[in-house]
Write a structure and sequence with these properties.
The protein is an alpha/beta fold and 406 residues long. The protein has a single domain, classed as FAD/NAD(P)-binding domain. Helix content is 36%, strand content 28%. The chain has twelve helices and 22 strands. Strands 6, 7, 14, 15, 16, 17, 18, 19 and 22 form a nine-stranded mixed sheet that branches. Strands 9-3-2-13-21-20 form a six-stranded mixed sheet. Helix 1 links the parallel strand 2 and strand 3. The longest helix is centred in the last third of the chain and has 28 residues. The protein binds flavin-adenine dinucleotide (FAD).
């Protein structure tokens, strides 16, 4: 007879968002089963995901509360300042917090985030992690949810969470209809070493063909200064850029970043990600909730996708545990509706603002560039506006769940 496993919550997708949710629930005494179709050994293999993520202050607070920050602390590179320029022309904005106000976040290799997350999750008795597992059917009813895996195992619970990222089959099967469009852009990712230190500055350089970001990383073991490159190119140029010989690729990168770091060299293999947008305002149905990229996917230029997903996590943990303390079922419609209302504005604002930013800087020509730089000069001169944008980057605005507060 095939095995049946039961828990309060069944989470489909154990990526950065789904697994962090499981850890947070476990810390509150809520048991979950996490199903992931991939193998953690593959996900954490060197070179599988060469990306680095900007982790905001609010997300760092979450990692601190969930017991992940201790192991992560020494692996992160603080972002002391963000420089925004229109194609390296004069008139950039420097977002530099006042002394004592704290950094604008920290950069982590995705591999380090995953390794620490899996390690912390493995120590939680209330998490049953099923990697390399494939869902055959999902059912939701008045009294509970049930998932059958292709190997015959049956999972039962009271709430189903869709956390399988951009291609979430749970979202699609349930009939959610996200707004979606393609940027016809591809992000080319690579690690760089450079002669001069980055001074913990994250550079966002906007070109009409797409944004180009240099994100500070810790020096490597040999003391070489390092940054992560996210270079957005038009989809039809991506194959050519990826196929360039290393020296030609480095020369193209150097041409776009000027001489800010001195001579540069390629430190890792290149990889690429297709960029598109999707957003659904509805994120709950009967005994079902969407979190992370399953609900919203955006252009990576502002480094907000994972941070937004972690804000989903903190809000969902708070509404579920508040509801359960009052004796409510975690799949209770009132509980889920509170989550949807809480997340709607933040999700819409961050996704929308990122989209507007990408489009605004994508308009070619000298006049649009002059208008943009006039606007940027206005922001550069306004401490109030700068403080507003820095608070947004830190993820510390709006009504914050307790897990996002210091
Ligand atoms: C180039 C680039 C740079 C980025 N930089 C940043 C940044 O600096 N800061 C930031 O905040 N965000 C950044 N992001 C966004 C961030 O990577 C995502 O928002 C984040 O990974 C979303 O996490 P997730 O867990 O929702 O989805 P994912 O990370 O996609 O995880 C989904 C999980 O579900 C599993 N899965 C998939 N399908 C199934 C299935 N059918 N059944 C079971 N399991 C399944 C997968 O194996 C995976 O483990 C960047 C994105 C890109 C593309």
């Amino acid at each position: 007879m095939s095995e049946t496993l039961s828990a309060d919550v069944v989470i489909l997708g154990g990526g950065h968002v789904g697994m962090t949710l499981a850890i947070g629930l476990a810390r509150e005494g809520v048991a979950s089963i996490v199903v992931d179709s991939s193998d953690p050994a593959t996900q954490t293999a060197q070179g599988f995901d060469g990306r680095a993520s900007a982790i905001s202050t609010a997300s760092w607070n979450l990692y601190t509360h969930l017991g992940m920050a201790g192991e992560l602390a020494e692996k992160g590179c603080p972002i002391a300042s963000i420089a925004v320029t229109d194609a390296m022309k004069p008139g950039r904005i420097d977002f530099t917090p006042d002394p004592g106000d704290g950094s604008l976040g920290r950069m982590f290799a995705n591999r380090d985030l995953r390794l620490v997350m899996y390690g912390v999750a493995a120590r939680e008795d209330l998490i049953t992690f099923l990697p390399n597992a494939h869902v055959a059917t999902r059912e939701r009813g008045d009294h509970g949810v049930s998932v059958t895996l292709t190997d015959g195992r049956r999972l039962t619970g009271r709430l189903l969470v869709g956390a399988e990222g951009r291609q979430s089959p749970t979202r699609d099967e349930a009939g959610f209809t996200p707004a979606r469009w393609s940027y016809h852009h591809r992000a080319i990712i690579a690690g760089l070493t450079h002669e001069r230190p980055h001074d913990n500055v994250a550079w966002e350089i906007f070109y009409p063909a797409g944004p180009f970001a240099l994100l500070p990383l810790l020096d490597d073991a040999e003391g070489r200064h390092r940054s992560a490159l996210v270079w957005t190119v038009a989809e039809h140029d991506a194959a050519g850029v990826l196929a360039l010989p290393d020296a030609a690729f480095t020369a193209e990168v150097a041409r776009r970043m000027g001489d800010i770091f001195g001579p540069i060299a390629l430190a890792t293999a290149r990889s690429s990600y297709v960029l598109n947008f999707h957003h659904t305002a509805k994120v709950v149905q009967q005994r079902l909730v969407l979190v992370g990229d399953a609900a919203h996917g955006m252009h990576p230029i502002a480094g907000q996708g994972l941070n937004l997903g972690l804000r989903d996590v903190a809000a969902l943990i708070e509404v579920l545990t508040d509801g359960m303390r009052l004796g409510l079922d975690p799949g209770d419609a009132q509980v889920l509706n509170r989550y949807e209302r809480w997340r709607a504005l933040d999700g819409f604002m961050v996704s929308g603002a990122t989209d507007v930013l990408t489009r605004l800087f994508g308009v070619p020509g000298r006049l649009p560039s002059a208008v943009r730089r006039l606007g940027m000069a206005g922001v550069q001169r306004s401490p109030t506006l700068k403080r507003f944008f820095m608070n947004e980057a830190r993820g510390m605005s709006g009504k914050l769940p307790a897990l996002l507060q210091a």
